[in-house]
Each structure stands twice: as structure tokens, then as C-alpha cells.
């Protein structure tokens, strides 16, 4: 669409762009450029104009925008040009998995709202419009299953640093795949992968996350989550959604480049911000609920727990609760 191409040009520019420059870059008339500019303005885009200078984007668009996000990504980012934004999906992970066979690696799907958001262990994830950023990416890392089983830990590191970079919020990681802020859940991460039937080798991975951005305390209390969840705005760290999306996609692009060779680096960063370390926890151990104290995170991002039964446990899955 010409409108998307105009939006991308404006997002990429550091200053004003003349109508002539834009018409030349797009291969269309200046009248066509003006028409698309007016269309964007009508949709709420803050576009300045000057008779001598041309047009300039004065701020972010009023809603998530694929061309804007792609244009703001750094040169060479694998997701640039492969960003899709939908107003409503059942689940970004579910939708992207359904598209996997015909979708290139490095694709990102963002939604303003999810009707069937999912977390780990089949839990539902509340995804109302305007309250959060819901994002999934499709990648095809050429690694074995053992490495893939550590990927959620890597994503926790990347997402934590991206949210902090975008908002300034001092975000922590709760083992294994939740981001926490001031002791409450801020973001859930769900990593799913498919194997090739013939060889058993990995085919693709879909990494999804939902970041709480604008929920109020009343919102969480109505959901029965007042003591459990929080949002960036509620904690005093508001963030613009397109900027947050760009920071997340930059961090995920870097993760793909680093995976799995830089495991030691990501492990160090994970451990430095894991609030589960040193805590008393309950966990599923051999079919029974057990308790103990977390003593470490091992090389596979599994939790090492000194059990109250006198045994050291390595917990790689299941529910772990801090007590």
C-alpha cells in the first residue's frame, strides 16, 4: 500500500521530507503523496508540514503500525519488513504457528487484542485492547532439541532488557518465564516449537509474550489479580507501544544471532536478575508437592533447589511458587 510506504519514509526520516523527495522515492506523483499524507493525518498520525521543508512525523502513530515499527528497526534486523499488525487475533502464538508453513523466518505478529491469549500449562492470558503489547515471532534456529529447551531462559533475558530499555523500569525475572516488577507479574512468555516428523529435528520456534502496559489496579482487581499482576503504567513507567515493540524486536534479533554460542553470557545476565534465587519455594517433585530453598540456576536454565527432604533437586519444568 502506498500509505504504508509513505508512513515508512516519514518514520525513517530524521527531519523534513519534501513532497518531491517522497514522490521520487516512491515513484508516484506529488498529488498521490499528499493524498496519503492526508489519509494518515485522518487516522491520527501527527504529521507536521512546511511549505518550504515538506513533511515531518512529530511523534509515534496513534496505534501499533507495522511500517512504522519496521522503519525504526536497525539496519539488518531480521524482522524489518516482516512485521504484521492485527487488531484482533485469538492468540498471536496460535496464529503464527498456523502461518508457519508459508511464513518466512524472522516474521513478527503483533495484536492490539487477543480473544484467546495463552500462557504456560494451558493457562489463559487476559489480553484486552489497549492494555498490553501482544507479540510473537517465528524463527528457525539450526540447533538440536537440547539447546531449544533452554531458549525460554534466553528470551527472558532479552525481554527483560528490552522492557527496561524502552521504559526504564527495573524489571526482574521469575523462574522460568515471567517478568516481574516490584514483586508482581508484568509479562508472560510462551515458547513453542515443532519438530520435523521424518527426522525429529526442529522445524520452527514461535516465541510469544504479553507485556502489561496500561492496566489499572481496578482492572487487575476485577480479574482477581490485584495482588499478583501489575503494569508499567501502574508502577510509574509508562511506555509507547511502538517503541516497546521496536526494543523487543531488536533484542530478539540479537538473541537469534547469539543463540546458542553465547549461553554463558545470557546465563550470567539471567542469574543477575532472577528473583527466585535464594528464595523459599514449593515445587512439583516426583509427583508430590515439595519445598526447599533455591541455590542456583544450572547450565540448562533449570532451577537447583536444596529440598527440605535433604535432597538436591533440579527442576526443569512444572510450577514453582515462591513462599
Protein architecture, described:
With 323 residues, the protein is α+β, with helices and mostly antiparallel strands. Helices cover 32% and strands 26% of the residues. The protein is built from 10 helices and 14 strands. The strands form 3 sheets. The chain has a 7-stranded mixed β-sheet, with helices on both faces. Strands 13-12-11-10-14 form a 5-stranded antiparallel β-sheet, with no helix packed on it. Strands 1-2 form a two-stranded antiparallel sheet. Strand 6 (172-174) and strand 7 form a beta hairpin. Helix 1 packs across helix 3 and helix 2 packs across helix 3 (30-42). The model has no long low-confidence stretch (mean pLDDT 94).
Q: What's this model, at a glance?
A:
This protein is of the alpha+beta class and 323 residues long. It has helices spanning 2-12, 19-26, 30-42, 66-72, 92-99, 145-148, 151-167, 217-222, 241-258, 263-272; strands at 47-50, 54-57, 83-86, 107-111, 132-139, 172-174, 178-181, 184-195, 202-212, 280-285, 288-297, 303-307, 312-315, 320-322.
Unreliably modeled segments: none
- DSSP strand content: 25-35%
Shape descriptor: elongated
- Termini separation (Å)? 53 Å
Global structural class: alpha+beta
Number of strands: 14
Helix content: 25-40%
Rg, rounded, reads 22 Å
Average pLDDT score:
94
Main sheet overview: 7 strands, mixed
Major sheet: order of its strands? 3-4-5-9-8-7-6
How many helical elements?
10
Topology as a string of helices (H) and strands (E): HHHEEHEHEEHHEEEEHHHEEEEE
Amino acid at each position: 500500500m502506498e500509505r504504508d510506504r509513505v508512513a515508512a519514509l516519514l518514520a525513517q526520516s530524521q527531519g523534513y521530507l519534501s513532497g518531491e523527495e517522497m514522490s521520487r522515492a516512491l515513484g508516484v506523483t506529488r498529488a498521490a503523496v499528499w493524498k496519503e499524507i492526508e489519509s494518515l493525518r485522518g487516522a491520527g498520525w501527527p504529521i507536521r508540514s512546511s511549505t518550504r521543508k515538506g513533511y515531518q512525523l512529530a511523534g509515534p502513530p496513534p496505534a501499533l503500525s507495522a511500517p512504522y515499527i519496521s522503519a525504526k528497526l536497525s539496519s539488518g534486523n531480521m524482522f524489518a519488513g516482516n512485521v504484521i499488525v492485527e487488531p484482533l487475533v485469538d492468540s498471536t502464538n496460535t496464529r503464527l504457528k498456523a502461518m508457519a508453513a508459508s511464513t518466512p523466518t524472522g516474521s513478527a505478529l503483533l495484536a492490539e487484542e487477543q480473544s484467546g491469549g495463552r500462557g504456560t500449562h494451558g493457562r489463559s492470558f487476559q489480553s484486552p485492547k489497549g492494555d498490553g503489547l501482544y507479540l510473537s515471532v517465528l524463527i528457525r534456529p539450526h540447533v538440536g532439541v537440547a539447546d531449544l529447551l533452554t531458549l525460554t531462559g534466553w528470551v527472558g533475558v532479552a525481554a527483560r532488557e528490552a522492557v527496561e530499555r524502552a521504559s526504564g523500569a527495573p524489571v526482574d525475572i521469575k523462574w522460568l518465564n515471567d517478568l516481574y516488577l516490584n514483586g508482581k507479574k508484568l509479562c508472560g512468555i510462551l515458547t513453542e516449537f515443532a519438530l520435523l516428523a521424518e527426522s525429529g529435528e526442529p522445524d520452527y520456534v514461535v516465541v510469544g509474550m504479553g507485556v502489561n502496559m496500561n492496566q489499572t489496579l481496578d482492572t487487575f482487581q476485577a480479574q482477581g489479580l490485584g495482588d499478583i499482576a501489575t503494569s508499567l503504567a501502574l508502577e510509574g513507567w509508562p511506555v509507547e507501544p511502538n517503541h516497546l515493540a521496536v526494543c523487543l524486536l531488536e533484542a530478539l534479533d540479537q538473541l537469534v544471532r547469539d543463540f546458542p554460542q553465547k549461553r554463558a553470557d545470557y546465563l550470567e545476565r539471567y542469574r543477575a536478575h532472577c528473583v527466585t534465587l535464594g528464595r523459599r519455594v514449593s515445587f512439583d517433585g516426583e509427583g508430590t508437592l515439595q519445598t526447599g530453598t533455591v541455590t542456583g540456576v544450572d547450565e540448562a536454565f533449570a532451577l537447583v533447589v536444596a529440598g527440605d527432604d535433604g535432597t538436591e533437586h533440579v527442576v526443569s519444568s512444572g510450577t514453582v511458587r515462591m513462599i
